[in-house]
Specification:
Blueprint (H helix, E strand, L loop, with lengths): L1 H15 L27 E11 L13 H4 L6 E12 L5 E5 L3 E10 L3 E9 L5 E10 L3 E9 L2 E10 L1
Length: 164
């Protein structure tokens, strides 16, 4: 009876986290054998560019050439690189840095496997208010664009590239 209640509790917890799909719990005889090993540990180098994007002008900072394909879908025509931050992230080792507009960015590595990383990204305003708090998935050696908040006559664009 205890195994049944344990299975029900685990299923409810996994379902609440959005992890239940084709997942099945091991039978009683296999309960000691994990079916899904923990994600591989290790550091991930996350590079965050801070870009000021506007509709004034029509130029892309030459230092952003490797990111042009990610910027094209955005509605802006002018991209100026303000700063670049290289973050060696590991488990339980979040990083933070300041950006334009008296804001702070916090990046935390949640999970890493052979194909992708999951990151929690927060942007905090000058008065401590959360402007953004999201979890995102970045493909291995890929880039994910976070656009906003407003800055000057445009917005700040934060491409995050996960290298490992």
């Amino acid at each position: 009876m205890a195994i049944f209640h344990l299975r029900r509790a685990l299923t409810a917890a996994l379902f609440g986290l959005g992890l239940v799909g084709g997942f099945s719990l091991p039978s009683t005889a296999q309960a000691e054998q994990p079916t899904n090993p923990a994600p591989r540990a290790g550091k991930v180098q996350v590079v965050v560019h801070v870009i000021h994007a506007t509709e004034e002008g029509n130029k892309v900072d030459p230092k952003l050439q490797s990111l042009v394909r990610y910027l094209k879908p955005l509605r802006y025509t002018n991209y100026d690189l303000l700063s670049t931050h290289e973050l060696p992230l590991g488990a339980k080792a979040p990083a933070n840095f300041s950006i334009a507009g008296d804001r702070k960015v916090l990046v935390d590595l949640l999970e890493r496997d052979d194909k992708r990383v999951r990151l929690r990204v927060q942007v905090v305003g000058a008065k401590g208010q959360k402007l953004l708090d999201t979890t995102l998935s970045v493909p291995r050696n890929g880039t994910f664009i976070v656009a906003g908040p407003k800055y000057g006559k445009g917005v700040l664009v934060l491409p995050l590239t996960a290298k490992y």
